[in-house]
Sequence to fold (74 residues):
Amino acid sequence: MVDDCRPLGFLLGMPFALLSSVLSLIALVVWLLGSIVSCVCPCCECCAGLLNLTMAIAKLPVEVIRWFISRIPL
Fold:
């Protein structure tokens, strides 16, 4: 795994990862609200799509860093 060291990609991706981190914090708030609403809602299907979307947004910072690192040549 030493061959995959690309510090330039990590540094270039940091501003975008910071933005993604802010989005993931917003997604966390939406996820918490959606979880509370899904407990109250009897069908539990109306919030499932919203909760899946917020989980995808919460994973966004890691995906952004990996994408930038993969774009930098060795």
In short: The CA atoms of residues 27 and 54 lie 5 Å apart.
